[in-house]
Structures are given as C-alpha cells and as structure tokens.
Design a protein that fits this description.
- The protein is α/β, with parallel strands linked by helices and 239 residues long.
- The protein has one domain (12-237): Vaccinia Virus protein VP39 (Rossmann fold, 3-Layer(aba) Sandwich), CATH 3.40.50.150.
- The protein has 8 helices and 8 strands; from the N terminus they run H-H-E-H-E-H-E-H-E-H-E-H-H-E-E-E.
- It has helices at 12-20, 33-49, 66-73, 85-97, 110-116, 136-146, 162-175, 192-201, and strands at 56-60, 77-82, 103-107, 121-127, 147-158, 204-215, 220-224, 230-237.
- It has an 8-stranded mixed β-sheet.
- A hairpin with a 4-residue loop joins strand 6 (204-215) and strand 7 (220-224).
- The chain is globular.
- The chain starts with 11 loop residues before the first helix and ends with a strand.
C-alpha cells in the first residue's frame, strides 16, 4: 500500500541507494552479509526482553525482511514496513520461497501507519534505520504511537563521535568492506542522549542499552556495554 503522506520523512537518495542493492538482501556473502551475521544477536536480545511467541510485532524500515522473517520464525505475527519498493518485493518473495508463515509486508511510512493503527503492536523494532531519515524524532514518535501501553520498542543506530566515524565509516566501509561505501552519513549519526530525548517525548521509557562490537581478525560480532559506536536500545511504552 502506498504512503499518502504529502511530505514523507524519507531521503530519496537513501531509497535509491537501497533499491539498487535490493537483489543482494538475502545473499549472506554479499553486500548485506553483516546484517545476516548480527541478526541472531539482535533477535536474541529482543526475544530475551520481550518474548515474541504469539506477539503482534512491527519491523520499521524492514528492507529485505531479514529481521522480520526471523521474528516470524520465533513465533510472532510479524509485519514489515518500508518505502523501498524493490526491497519489499525481495522480502515478499523470500517469505514465499522460505515458506515463512505469519509474516506480511506493506509499503507505507511509519507515520502513516501510526495514524491508521495506533496502539496495535506488542513489540516494535526499528533497526539501522534512524540514521537514514531526515527526521528521526518523527520516526520515534510514530513507533511510540504504534506500540501498546506496556509494549516494547527497540532501536539500533550509530553514535556520533570521532570513534564511530573512524570505525563505522572509514573502517567498515573503506578498509574492511563490511558494508557498501556510502552507506552512512556521519552527520546523521545519533548520540544516545539525543535518542533518549526523542524517546521521552514519545512516552517511551528507556530500559536497556547494549553496544555491538566486531573483531575483524576473528570476524565475530558480540553485544556488550560499550555504546561508543553501534548501539541498541530497549524502551517500554508508559502505561
């Protein structure tokens, strides 16, 4: 379903960039291999705080559906939304090919869905998406509107500091080639204090934070307490 927002909270260059890579979403050795590698960590952390079995779950900025499908396989009724048409088609096709039940996809903005279905979801995830939109606070507000009172909203994004520039852009994009060059724009990175402010304004209580780390020698990812570069946040809607 097409979004009806007149001024959508989207960067057309970002949509074009990810649309051009749409064919690579499910290639575990391709452009999105890092997302496949970190997905078990993301899923496990979400499931440990908000068990997904039988829950109504929304994945905002779902792309090709890597996390959306995983949450459906964990027992959730999962809906993935995005504005990149090609990526959604890849997600829908893969769900059919993998025979993943309980997963659906829609082309709609999170703001429009919030107006259409407020307080409809037990869990909302918004991973690696906030740093790609013009107004991340608007996305956070919409996520807060979409989750039920007492429900959980999870975000992941990139901190903004010299270390994150060195590691997430120079290291990941140009030295190690972990992700396509040009994936990130440093000015759009979000400090935890800024995200915390967005969450408070959206009625979301900050519950837990984890950092995502990578060792290029062992090619291993893990979660810990260091949020200086990549970090994940768990919030809960006020009752």
């Amino acid at each position: 379903m097409q979004s009806t927002t007149h001024t959508p909270n989207v960067d057309s260059a970002e949509l074009t960039k990810f649309s051009e890579l749409a064919h690579s979403w499910w290639d575990e050795a391709g452009e999105f291999r890092s997302l496949h590698q970190i997905n078990p960590l993301r899923l496990g952390w979400v499931n440990s705080l908000a068990p997904l079995q039988g829950k109504q779950v929304l994945d905002v900025g779902c792309g090709g559906g890597i996390l959306t499908e995983a949450m459906a396989r964990a027992g959730a009724q999962a809906l993935g939304i995005d504005l990149a048409t090609k990526s959604l088609k890849v997600a829908q096709l893969h769900a059919l090919e993998s025979q993943t039940a309980n997963v659906q996809y829609r082309e709609i903005s999170v703001e429009d869905l919030a107006a259409e279905r407020p307080a409809s979801f037990d869990v909302v995830t918004c991973m690696e998406m906030l740093e790609h939109v013009p107004d991340p606070a608007s996305v956070v507000r919409a996520c807060g509107a979409l989750v039920k009172p007492g429900g959980w909203v999870f975000f992941s994004t990139l901190n903004r500091n010299a270390q994150s520039f060195a590691m997430a852009i120079v290291g990941a994009e140009y030295v190690l080639n972990l992700i396509p060059r040009g994936t990130h724009e440093y000015a759009k990175f979000i400090r935890p204090s800024e995200l915390a402010s967005f969450c408070r304004a959206a009625g979301l209580d900050w519950q837990n934070t984890r950092g995502l780390q990578y060792n290029p020698l062992t090619r291993r990812y893990w979660l810990d307490a260091n949020t200086s570069v990549n970090y994940l946040v768990a919030t809960q809607k006020s009752i």
